[in-house]
Amino acid sequence: MKLYDFALAPNPRRVRMFLAxxxxxxxxxxxxxxxxxxxxxxFAKLNPFxxxxxxxxxxxxxxxxxxxxxxxxxxxxxxxxxMGRDAxxxxxxxxxxxxxxxxxxxxxxxxxxxxAPMFEGRGIAGVPDGFPQIPALVDRGKKRMxxxxxxxxxxxADNAFVAGPDFSIADITSFIAIEFAKxxxxxxxxxxxxxxxxxxxxSQRPSASA
Amino acid sequence: MKLYDFALAPNPRRVRMFLAxxxxxxxxxxxxxxxxxxxxxxFAKLNPFxxxxxxxxxxxxxxxxxxxxxxxxxxxxxxxxxMGRDAxxxxxxxxxxxxxxxxxxxxxxxxxxxxAPMFEGRGIAGVPDGFPQIPALVDRGKKRMxxxxxxxxxxxADNAFVAGPDFSIADITSFIAIEFAKxxxxxxxxxxxxxxxxxxxxSQRPSASA
Lengths: 210, 210
What we know:
Two copies of one chain form a homodimer. By secondary structure, chain A is mainly α.
């Protein structure tokens, strides 16, 4: 197996944290998206959508999606479980992971991609240009992040982790959403004390520096 | 179990198609989102994000996300498999299902939500108001749908179904993306013959009318 990765991008970090929590090591090929290496024809053969991460299996199959890569690793290495054991746990964790992506990562994404000069003409991931930035999405992204923090504060008031008592992929996704939003100088609001407590505990896990 | 559903919305339809393919029947409670019933306080107790569908389990646990509901059903009723059998199949199907959501459903969503008068002030799902429509997203949604059709045409040139030789949840998600975009009068482009062939075959499955 080979992992096409880029240290500075949020979705590759999601996979690296997942692998670190599992104690799994996979050889890495760096694809520098700041240099637009993901648009090179050789890379587009592996992933026509031109995004990282991509996991290349030994038979040549390419898994070009962060959560699908995590699923593959979860099935091969079930311990510690990060996507739930039984039907109910799996559903609760997937619900929170998808909410963390929709309410968190996507909100941070529209904020950062529509503000940062490096994404000019690339409002949509995986497209070299032709999707101009939309300034109204910067404001909308900020409002959505505020909503995200508010919801997560309520959830984390009653739960040690995002999807319940145990650390899961939903914590990884929530953590990278917050890390991503920092690039646009959006940080945890002072009143969201439960988010701050949880963020501190996740930051201290060895996987946070993966 | 109880399924909170709305006949006219895309994500509930995704779950209904999944259940029909599995041959599973669950009692339904209709939540009319055109009447804004999802914002009623009793419903917000089941799903604070105020979206349908929601699956309420017998112990009161509420699964408020379409794919998480499908996962729950898949684990309890593995036949016929719609999310893959082994690690590799599961990863390939999840990758295509997530691409279908990102490139298809989300593109159709930004197109429809930012154009239709019924979504005025509600550019973001699950929020009663305060997120004005952004006209630039209508054009962007159209361009993204064109990109979706182009990619899907290439994938379906070599594959009977979206994720390979077998029907899967990725076909359901792709199908509802196309059905959703129709509301903004965006349809399969004439040159996308492989998409048209596949769409015709999915339309004829009994689940398409679920």
